[in-house]
Design brief:
Structural class: alpha+beta
Shape: elongated
Largest sheet: 4 strands, antiparallel
Number of strands: 4
Number of helices: 3
Helix content: 10-25%
Oligomer: single chain
Distance between the termini: 35 Å
Length: about 120
């Protein structure tokens, strides 16, 4: 069986020394990953994120496209060619600006190819 937890952020299986997890957290992460993620979010002060709904939306999505918005510093995330999430630059980050429902063309999978490290 393929274990999704085999490698987390470059860690090898069993190497959790950098993660600073208690035995209980390791147990929850292995057997109850959603419960563990909610716990981690609370610890990080991100408990306002509705992880269940976020996971529900993206786990049911079979196609995600990215489209840059020409003439502006923004982009759309398009879910299954039907729903677009809009983001615009706000200083040194992007802000969610809303969503639209409609029929969308495919995105460009090479959108990140020319980015420099």
């Amino acid at each position: 069986m393929d274990n999704d937890l085999d490698e987390i952020d470059g860690l090898k299986p069993g190497d959790t020394s950098r993660l600073k997890l208690s035995q209980w957290e390791k147990f929850k992460l292995k057997f109850f990953p959603m419960m563990a993620l909610k716990s981690f979010a609370k610890r990080l002060g991100a408990e306002d994120f509705d992880i269940d709904n976020l996971h529900q939306v993206f786990s049911k999505t079979s196609r995600i496209d990215l489209v840059s918005l020409s003439g502006s510093r923004g982009f759309m995330i398009i879910l299954d060619g039907k729903v677009s999430l809009w983001f615009y630059q706000d200083g040194d980050h992007f802000k969610y600006d809303g969503f639209e429902i409609g029929e969308y063309d495919k995105g460009d999978v090479t959108i990140f190819d020319n980015l420099k490290n």
